[in-house]
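Quick board copy: two proteins, each given as sequence then tokens.
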Amino acid sequence: MIKDSPNPPSDSISLHAAAHRAINHYLNPSEKPEPSAENHGVFTVREGIDIETLLVNASEDLASAQALASHLAFEIDGTPRSVALGVCRMLEGIQLLVNGALDQYAPPAPR
């Protein structure tokens, strides 16, 4: 028979040491980072990324979301299809705005 977990330590000293390490890991962490007031979400944007990179990634993400919504719209019928097409059109408009900003972006001259 295959066991789900390995054998426990054979001596009680090792077992108690492992138990204390596990308890301390969860209940008494050595350094607990303080939550930042700026980071409210799960994802963050790394500092120092240039505007062009941000706009290009936003444009690509919008294009992917628009493709998903478009594909969904042609898989369903009725009111849900109208909703999916509405989302598709909104994403398309936002993508046009981002692409317009990207077209107007002039990278700073190298020093």
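And the next:
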Amino acid sequence: MDASNNNRSGPALNGTGHHMAPADVDFSLVRGVESRLVRARAALLKESDQAFSGLAVSTNEAAVLTAIGKSVANSPTGLSEVLGVNSGFMSRLLNRLENKSLLQRSQSTGDRRVVKIALTEAGARMYIRLEQIMPNLLNRRFGRLSHVELVELNGLLERLIGE
């Protein structure tokens, strides 16, 4: 048996029944996984852009509207953290959405330094429309996987994220 077969048996189970990462992670395998994650994200973004093209919002703008609509975040800082973008990019996104009258910014009554973001009436309608589009969009991409595979993928991604 050569050294390249050492990692083929997969990770061992620890005492809790969870898999432990092997001591020597195969860097080329990890790079392949990373590359496929990037390509999968790119494919989903391309499909999202196509699905949202008739709505006059970009995929990034839709992500902001969705995060606000789902009450995931309501401040520029919170949105930047949730969406994984820097504050400058978030500021430009918020400016575009405000110019489209889809959201409004206001100062917090408790602390004037804090900016709160809310959907306008038009923004709330756009959020509802996005929520109607998302199931078909996601089903086209993720419908290729069985329920068991989706559950497994979700668990694996949670472990990669660290949650």
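Board note added afterward: The radius of gyration is 20 Å.
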